[in-house]
Amino acid sequence: MFEKFTERSIKAIMLAQDEARRMGHNFVGTEQILLGLIGEKTGLAARLLKSMGVHLENARLEVEKIIGRGSGFIAEEIPFTPRAKRILNFSLEESRLLGDNSVKTEHVLLGLIREKDGVGARALIALGTNLAAIRTKVIWVLNKNTSQVQNLDTSRHEIKDSSQAQNSDTSEPKISERFTEKAIKAILLAQEEARLMGHNFVGTEQILLGLIGEATGIAAKMLKSKGVRLRNARLEVEKIIGRGSGFVAKEIPFTARAKRILELTLEEARQLGHNYIGTEHLLLGLIREGEGVALTVLDNLGVNSEAIVSQVIRILDENNNPPIPKLATNPKPIINKPREIRLIDLIDTLADCFYKENDANHLLLRISFPMRYKPNFNKFNTSFEFWQVICVKIESGILRECGSSHAAFKLTIEQARTIYPGNDKLKEIYQKYFS
């Protein structure tokens, strides 16, 4: 099992065994793995936990409060508990899902918080941390979106060094690290489209639906200008591939063609001299692949794929070389625009306040959320992941009667405050974006 673990991860595991001996225990549990990750000090897991106020001495005290001290008799070989073994398996899975070929301390940390009933996770909660927030910060750091992790008590320079250390075996970042927020949202929506239609895969057709559903990116605007609407595209997809069996695994794999599209997006971005992958690159990659169901759908909807490519390139050229604006002779009065919302703030707040399914359903019914589009709450490891999907759907315009996504989010927070009128986090988020 440990052949894929990095030197820092192995050190954390060895320190976990030392922690077990120090406390007189004849086992290594989730709590000792947590202490080992903190004690390792130099890995991303240790630094993230430190930035959230988790220190070794305090964590040791919490662990001792929960499990006490052992008898003092320690066998030479200290076995792992079933939960600890599950964490190690989870860490391998997290590494694979994030496209890494080695298991680092951050993957072990992600595995630990997935085992949310373990003593390690309980100790973190007792220390005032939010498990969903930990996962979010790890993912954002790995994706190099350091601007989204403003609460980290770590400089941008340190994060950059960390990312370079993690990717020292490659000359450039992984594809996933180049994706913009809108492109990531489109991929998440593609996975949701697969679930909605009962399919156990994400193909080119789901990526197309995700790009349309994202609504705000260049790809969505381009397709809309060609008369492509989400409802019509869904009907065409269903005509071609039908509906699935209804049984959908928690992890939905990409088809070979879909993976090819993701590779082509990187090539498109390179050729255009871009260091990021946006929805426009995904659309160009989808068209360039040439034979997927998505192209058949566009053809059936009367869309000329080659014309899309030309138009996307022209828009990108205009964005890179914008015309010099003319001065207005009669300037219009300044109109206050709605404040730009950081989606991660809303997700984190809703996940904290509505972490039980009944409470979540209560809020969704109050805002008239179409419950047929509500994902299965129990399929998610954390409430954060559930609310992430819900907020992406709201931003995509599922609450059509609200008009704009800003109005839809305002309604959501207003209704949340009627359920929990004295909640400080809801009050703070309302004042920040909607007052």
Shape: globular
Largest sheet: none
- What radius of gyration results from the CA coordinates? 24 Å
Tally of DSSP β-strands = 0
- How many helix segments? 23
Strand-residue fraction?
A: under 5%
Strand-pairing-aware structural class: mainly alpha
Percent of residues in helical segments? 55-70%
Question: Segments where pLDDT lies below 50 for 5+ residues?
Answer: 144-176, 321-335
Mean pLDDT value: 80
Q: In angstroms, what separates the terminal alpha carbons?
A: 53 Å
The SSE order reads HHHHHHHHHHHHHHHHHHHHHHH
Entry keywords:
mainly alpha; 435 residues
Could you please describe the fold and organization of this structure?
The radius of gyration is 24 Å and the shape is globular. By secondary structure, it is mainly α. Mean pLDDT is 80; it is low at 144-176 and 321-335. 61% of the residues lie in helices and 0% in strands.
How would you summarize this macromolecular structure in one to three sentences?
By secondary structure, the protein is mostly helical.
List the helices and strands and how they pair.
Layout: H1 7-22, H2 30-40, H3 44-51, H4 56-67, H5 82-97, H6 105-114, H7 119-126, H8 131-142, H9 156-166, H10 175-178, H11 181-196, H12 204-214, H13 218-225, H14 230-241, H15 256-271, H16 279-289, H17 293-300, H18 305-320, H19 343-353, H20 357-366, H21 383-395, H22 405-419, H23 424-433
Helix pairs in contact: 1-2, 2-3, 2-4, 2-6, 2-7, 4-7, 5-6, 6-8, 11-12, 12-13, 12-14, 12-16, 12-17, 14-17, 15-16, 16-18, 19-21, 22-23
